[in-house]
Each structure stands twice: as C-alpha cells, then as structure tokens.
Amino acid sequence: MIAAFFPAASQVARQPLLECGAELSSFVLWGHRLADASWQFQTIATDWAPCLRDPEEGGSPPTRSESAWVSSWAEALELLAQRPWELLIPGAVHAEFADEVLAAVMRRLTGQEDERARSLRERWTLACSARSFAAVD
After folding, report:
1. Predicted confidence band at 18 (pLDDT cuts at 50, 70, 90)?
2. How far apart are CA 135 and CA 44, in angstroms?
3. Total number of domains in the chain
4. 9 within a domain of the structure (yes/no)
5. Does residue 116 lie in a domain region?
6. 74-105, pLDDT tens digit by residue?
C-alpha cells in the first residue's frame, strides 16, 4: 500500500527540481507531481571520484545515494539539510520551486558574510532567477 504513495524512482515520471554540484559530485532534488497537483520529493547524490582510477587500480563505478520519497516541501527541506547543498555550485532550478529554493539558501547562509557566502548568494540568486527548468505536467 505504501508503494502507491511513495513509488520507487524508476516507476515515476520524475523531474529535476534542483541540481547543484562540485568537482566530481552532484546533488539533485527530484520531484514527482501527483494527479492532485501535490508533489513528492527525493534526493540523489552522486560521487564520481571512484571512477578516476582504472578498474585494475581499484577504480569503481560512481557511488550513488538515494533518499526515500517524501510528500511535503518541509520534508524535502529536511532531506536537503542532510548535506551542505547550499555550498555547492547551483546548476538549474525548476521554475515552480525557484522562490522556495532561494529562500532556503538565504536561510542556510544567514550570518555568513565572507566572500564565499556572498558569491554563493549571487550564484543561487542567478540560478533561481533563470528558472532553468520549465514546469512539465
């Protein structure tokens, strides 16, 4: 019964809502819009560093960590809070969540006034104002 409410990622038409990363790593907040227009959310973090070595030297495929699907924005923020995502370089932000993402970044960077924090605020503001991902139904 729970699977009907929190389907596996491979079973849903998910959309990226937030993409960010750094060298050799990426972090994505995925969303799935339900028939009643509500959303489910999941995070996936990928580390590409293990791929740097040849398999003979101990190299391996990238490591990937997937959260469970959650059913509210508040729970999505809790998933995001498990990682310092606001310190990563923003890639793209879904148009419907740009304001919420920017507000979350600003809250997380509150009290930080160094050059790095100022630069991150500027980058996130630009990424959120670009509204990189169009809404898809």
Report:
1. very high
2. 20
3. 1
4. yes
5. yes
6. 999 999 999 999 999 999 999 999 999 999 99
